[in-house]
Write a structure and sequence with these properties.
Blueprint lengths: L2 E12 L38 H13 L3 E2 L6 E4 L9 E4 L6 E10 L2 E14 L3 E5 L10 E5 L6 E7 L6 H18 L11 E11 L7 E6 L2 H20 L7 E6 L4 E7 L9 E2 L10 H8 L6 H12 L3 H8 L2 H11 L5 H19 L10 H12 L5 H14 L3 H8 L7 H14 L1 H8 L3 H14 L6 H12 L1
Parallel strand pairs: 11-12
Antiparallel strand pairs: 1-9, 1-10, 2-5, 3-4, 3-14, 5-6, 6-9, 7-8, 10-11, 12-13
Length: 479
């Protein structure tokens, strides 16, 4: 049988407004449990919600960035379900008339492009947070649960895709591009570890062109978890089908530690939520002038910036993609370019050694101790042959750890490279005289001899000799 993976995503992004969706409580992360609540977000009787204008504007901006059409008249609905983290026993959301719909986002993969349809981008409120007390930290096996409603009522933009993705890797790449888009728009901090960006996936296997039963997966709080969970589910469904079993439509929980999904509950349908129009909120009717004012806020988006980096700075696609995948990193690169050094060299240092240091130290690029001007200094020192490539790596590490500039480090440690031809030639002559056997081997064309003699030159100069000059002199003198 021929299997085809069919994936659609539902992404929730908390919008970074000052206040919650329908009240004036602070919409910031953390704080003492239930310290950022009021009668409105707790659903007390007789209270009336008022829609957050900034949240509506941010959702429209996101819809426009994803090529969606803005709905002339949209409304809020009550989505009814009973769960401890829902203080009102319903969620104010949107159903059949969302704020924006019908968009698309192109995902560039290795050698091809996947156009992913955006079904809708709508606005709703977040739920609270259940804290399950027990060894597992999950509801199953918990001794009891506590509720923190600080998050209840925070504005959420929900992005629903068409089932256009065909592999876990495509899903991961799409999610990374969407996160970058949200960051570039400046409407969400996208911190998956804090729950401000969450993703559910619907996945099925089509067999010989016939659509299969879809399964929803929850609790994927990182790009790696998304890819692993979908990969596991593809194999689970494939094995079940090959054994003649039916796939059950259900919601499954991803256990990152165990590396597998497990049944959570049967999959709900829309009618299970008994949607009906929210009677306490007026329809949203954005006029054309306001929509155009929102559109005027549109910044350069990730794909546009990637192509500009390729065009203006001559960066290879993989490096340009890495830099522009995170707005802060792309900003860092552009500030480094302002130092006047070679953009490609700067990009290589950022994508390579600097990124490795940041990852090892768990430091975001925004808090990098080495400022963009410092990286420009490092590349300049290397280009001027004041330091060697090996020295540059040492200087980079020390600058990262100490916060000192590369020029200060080079001066304090006396690391300036010897680039005086006469001085290096004198050392080369000494090395040849001290190592006649190796010199003869090199005359016979043995490449290993050159490495040995170069090592002796670097040893005598304590690593300060310009390697290319020393190598050139050895080859000239020994053929």
């Amino acid at each position: 049988m021929e299997y085809q993976t069919i994936i659609g995503l539902e992404i929730h992004a908390e919008l970074n407004t000052a206040s919650k969706m329908f009240c004036g409580c602070a919409a910031t992360f953390g704080g003492d449990p239930n310290s950022k609540t009021c009668p409105i977000c707790l659903g007390h009787p007789g209270v009336l919600p008022v829609a957050n204008r900034a949240a509506v504007a941010n959702t429209i901006l996101l819809g426009l960035a994803l090529d969606c059409a803005v709905t002339p008249r949209s409304i809020f609905h009550r989505k009814n379900y009973f769960y401890p983290d829902m203080p009102k026993d319903f969620q104010i959301s949107q159903y059949d008339i969302p704020l924006t719909s019908g968009g698309r986002l192109a995902v560039e993969m290795d050698g091809y492009e996947r156009m992913v349809g955006i079904t809708r981008v709508h606005l709703e409120e977040d739920t609270g947070k259940s804290i399950h007390i027990g060894e597992s930290g999950r509801i199953h096996g918990a001794e009891h649960s506590l509720e923190d409603f600080n998050r209840a009522g925070i504005p959420l933009a929900e992005i629903v895709t068409e089932p256009d993705l065909r592999s876990p890797e495509e899903a991961r790449t799409f999610m990374q591009l969407l996160r970058a888009t949200l960051e570039y728009l400046g409407i969400s901090d996208c911190k998956m570890e804090e729950g401000s960006l969450r993703c559910d996936a619907n996945i099925s296997l089509a067999v010989d062109g016939k659509m299969g039963t879809k399964v929803e997966i929850k609790n994927m709080n990182s790009f790696r978890a998304l890819s692993r969970a979908l990969t596991y589910e593809v194999e689970r469904q494939r094995f079940a089908l090959e054994q003649g079993h039916k796939i059950v439509q259900e919601t499954r929980h991803w256990d990152d530690a165990a590396g597998q999904t497990s049944p959570l509950r049967s999959k709900e349908e829309a009618f299970d939520y008994r949607y009906f129009p929210e009677p306490d909120l007026v329809p949203i009717e954005p006029d054309a002038e306001w929509v155009e004012a929102i559109r005027a806020r549109m910044p350069e988006l990730p794909v546009q910036r990637l192509h500009r980096f390729e065009r203006d700075f001559g960066l290879p696609p993989e490096i340009a993609g890495m830099l522009t995948g995170e707005k802060a990193m792309a900003d860092y690169f552009e500030r480094a370019v302002e130092t006047g050094q070679d953009p490609l060299e700067l990009a290589k240092w950022i994508a390579g050694d600097l990124s490795a240091l940041l990852k090892d130290a768990s430091v975001p690029i925004e808090a990098c101790p080495l400022k963009p001007q410092g990286l420009g200094e490092l590349v300049a020192l290397l280009a001027q042959r004041i330091i060697s490539g090996k020295m540059a790596k040492e200087v980079l590490r020390e600058a990262f750890e100490s916060g000192n500039t590369p020029r200060v480090i080079v001066a304090d440690r006396g690391l300036s490279q010897i680039a005086d031809g006469a001085e290096i030639e004198s050392v080369v002559d000494e090395v040849i005289a001290d190592n006649p056997d190796a010199a003869e081997d090199m005359r016979q064309g043995k490449e290993a001899a050159l490495k040995f003699l170069m090592g002796q030159v670097m040893k005598k100069t304590r690593g300060k000799a310009n390697p290319s000059m020393a190598s050139e002199l050895l080859r000239k003198k020994l053929g």
